[in-house]
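Repro case for the chain-ordering regression, as requested:
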Amino acid sequence: MTTPRSRALLARLLTLLLSALAAVGARTARAEDGYELWLRYHPLPAAQAAAYRAHVVELAMSAGTPAAQATRDELLRGLGGLLGAAPRIGSQADQDGALLVGTPDSSPQLARLGLDTRALGREGYLISSVKVDGHAAIAIVGNSDVGVLYGAFRFLRLLQTAQPLDHLDIRDAPRVQLRMLDHWDNLDGSVERGYAGASIWDWWKLPGYVDPRITDYARANASIGINGAVLNNVNADKLSLTTPYLAKAAAIADVLRPYGIRVYLSVRFSSPIELGGLKTADPLDPAVAAWWRAKVDAIYKLIPDFGGFLVKANSEGQPGPQDYGRSHADGANMLAAVLAPHGGVVMWRAFVYSNKQPDDRARQAYDEFKPLDGRFRSNVILQVKNGPIDFQPREPFHPLFGAMPDTALMMEFQVTKEYLGFATHLVYLGTLFQETLQSDTMARGKGSTVARVIDGSLYAGTAHAHRLTAMAGVANIGSDRDWCGSTFNQANWYAFGRLAWNPDDSARAIAADWVRMTFGNDPAIVAPIVGMMMGSREAAVDYMTPLGLHHQMHEGDHYGPAPWDASEPRADWRPAYYNRADKDGIGFDRSSHGSDAVAQYAPPVAAGFDDLARIPDRYLLWFHHLPWDYRMRSGRTLWDELVLHYSHGVDAVAAMRVTWRSLAGHIDTERYAKTSAFLAIQQREAQWWRDASIAYFQSLNGLPLPAGIAPPAHPLKYYQSLSFPFAPGYNSW
Ligand code: GCV
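-- result from build under test --
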């Protein structure tokens, strides 16, 4: 039986319990699954929200098109979430605190402001503090709906990253025209080199059902300016071009369109034979061109703003024009000719190499494409990987970037971490992207950075000027709840988009924005997390492939170390081909005394790489084969230096774990726990990489380890016995 006294006691106990729980909740923060990505519009601290609310009392915009509706929805969602209440919706600014949004054509008030939008182009925007009929307002203006959408996302970013809203005067426009994600997604739902679950395109249910997730995909991309998506794997299935699959692609295109994103397809060069019943796919055969023309016309009927084709030809077993004695230019130009009337483009990949070729693999793309410079139609762009081998933890920039002034060249980065620890290793790729983009090709003297080749500014105003500019990232997106397999992999999608928009942006600044948007603005978390991210790629290089080593991963799945693997066939898929280690030394001699791949760079760059006194340590074993006792700049022998780098990589991961532990209670429980577990995996695997590599190289050179350095935990045989038949991302084609 309860008395009033016992009831009061119970109530008090309950209150105490609830407030204790609330305190714990506040400390560990609400669990989050990462689905919201960086568009995480959680309430800002009260004082901050109140200050911002005064600037956005009313949202004045007309939403007459699907794109404008998407913009308005995003602003309402973002402001409502961040500020606790969405602004009133109006059509014009008639009091202080209006957010006036649109194109000059969409609003007489905006037109009257006479803001200069000429330099913004079609996709740029301005965000400006203005007076409208005597009232203080903020104008977000673009010349097109998509420019306005990008401006709206930028405005939300200002709030998410706690920036002041007074005296705004921001003007921004993309430096690169086509900012693409390449999905290596297969029609069976698997993703080649995908580590985040199945494909987000549910080909089976399309076009009848389009997952709402695709709208969120579009929002995320638009927020960072991505305006193109290649839906299917470059190892393309011919069925992608059949009518049922084109209808599926069209359904996706309909969802992406309001967000300024065009759809592209990878195509199989032999489709005229396999789908059209022709005897040949020879690009110079008129019947072949006619087949492609009809196919392209059919595509544009379904997808009026279709972007074009991505082609992997005569590469890793794919069919191509060389099967008929024709060149890459012949193949690309034939497709470009049928796409041109519709405004479509061809992105032709330069990732080619052949194991039948006794030559150094790193030389082959240049040798094949350089002679074709100037022979491509104006709607062809050559898609070149960042380095000459294959998305390694570190490569020097691809020599083609400095060597084809008369051809439009686009960058292909890999956002998915095929060679960088899959989903679980924390490796921020912003620094890798930046390192390549800021490399100086010296093609037109000092300052001829890869970024300037990509954005077209290097040749602007010269006889070499070309129209098309583009950057692609191989997507790391899948059906995992957090999209990318880990919270930190989301940062790589984000950084790719930001750098495609502005290739000179800073990896550190981008990381800081991402951290603020993803975890919050608390200085106690921003600086340590940015610090972890900025050092993470160098740590991975150190524990996997230090001092210019490359492609030391297990063949096929590319999971874990296998520096000993020299098995046949196909030497150029095997680590031993690349490390060339024996009892005397290590490294691939690409100097003027070796394969002479250095000569593919502009003379001043080549001279620097060729000269042992000048080459940076980070590229040493990429270009030189050296004895184990070679004396490094540090005064240590090459062997000692190598071992110390491996060990440093492991130590750096251990340090990341310490930093992450210090953030316990500041990060929501779910994302905190997942990252903690992943860092533990990364530390184990970093140690494995280090130990296996040292054990193997030591088995060749018989040298002692530097003083104080621990030996590998197991004998070499143990590492060599490991196998991983179900490693993800492989065997899906
Ligand atoms: C799509 C590497 C990858 C392949 C990939 C290829 C490419 O070889 O391991 O999975 O195939 O690059 O970029 O075409």
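Ordering looks correct now. The chain has 22 helices and 16 strands.
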